[in-house]
Amino acid sequence: MNSKNIPWHAVGLRIRRLRESKGLSRLQLARKLGVDVSSLSGWESGKRLPRESVRLRLAGLLDCRLPALMSPAMEDDPPFSAQLISTVPDFTKMLID
What we know:
The structure is a single chain. With 97 residues, this protein is an all-alpha fold. Helix content is 60%, strand content 0%. It starts with 7 loop residues before the first helix and ends with a helix. The longest helix is centred in the first third of the chain and has 14 residues, at 8-21.
């Protein structure tokens, strides 16, 4: 996925909203991902995007499909809302364990 075509602020807002909906602090999510809290803060503020090597794990931990996580669409778009729900809970559990 080409990072130049992704609206960083939309992805950051989505990451924050999904993290908060899971009841996770930045520190908790950062530890589960094996990244620094400052990296997560940078993603959420729209200053940078997660590395491609982290995106799939991030999506799994947030119960979100990767295309939906990195989508330029905003949450208020009806087709986008339906994509946020993960249909593979076992995969998510594998990422967390």
